[in-house]
Design brief:
With 155 residues, the chain is an all-alpha fold. Helices cover 83% and strands 0% of the residues. Helix 1 packs across helix 5, helix 2 packs antiparallel against helix 3 and helix 4 packs antiparallel against helix 5. The longest helix is centred in the middle third of the chain and has 35 residues.
Length: 155
């Protein structure tokens, strides 16, 4: 699983350093989506009955998560292209977009948790949200380790 994260992050970062096209973003999202589904399948250990209800909710969640991921990629790409000459107004704009993206992700998680509770026992619903938080945090840490901090170029 760690190898998957490193490969995805390297692909993600290398693409974010360049101008993004819709096809590139879709490609990254499709690779992550396929691999991620395997991780969720193994981790959740759903019964056949549980799986019937869960995967529909999961697919709907993934649709929303991918849209937010696309926005995140674009924001990171814009930051990586402009960080050397970042002005106050642009720094604020990028941060506001990032915070808005994170807020909407948490709202999506909360909504999905409620929906998952409708088809799975609470323990498995919590397990799913815990996994999503873990995966998102892992990706964020890897990205942050690759990005320069604001002002570093001037030091």
């Amino acid at each position: 699983m760690k190898k998957l994260f490193y490969v995805l992050v390297l692909v993600f970062i290398s693409f974010s350093a360049y101008s993004q096209t819709k096809d590139e973003i879709n490609y990254i999202q499709s690779i992550w989506g396929m691999e991620k589904r395997d991780i969720v399948t193994k981790y959740m250990s759903l019964t056949d009955e549980e799986a019937k209800g869960f995967w529909g909710v999961y697919d709907k969640y993934e649709e929303g998560r991918k849209k937010l991921g696309e926005e995140r990629i674009k924001n990171i790409a814009e930051y990586s292209e402009q960080f050397a000459e970042l002005k106050d107004s642009k720094a604020q704009e990028l941060l506001n977009r990032s915070l808005s993206n994170q807020t909407r992700f948490l709202e999506l998680l909360n909504k999905t948790y409620t929906e998952v509770l409708g088809v799975l026992p609470a323990i498995k619903a919590v397990q799913f949200i815990q996994l999503e938080n873990y995966l998102d945090t892992k990706i964020r840490v890897q990205i942050m380790e690759q990005l320069p901090f604001v002002g570093d170029i001037k030091r």
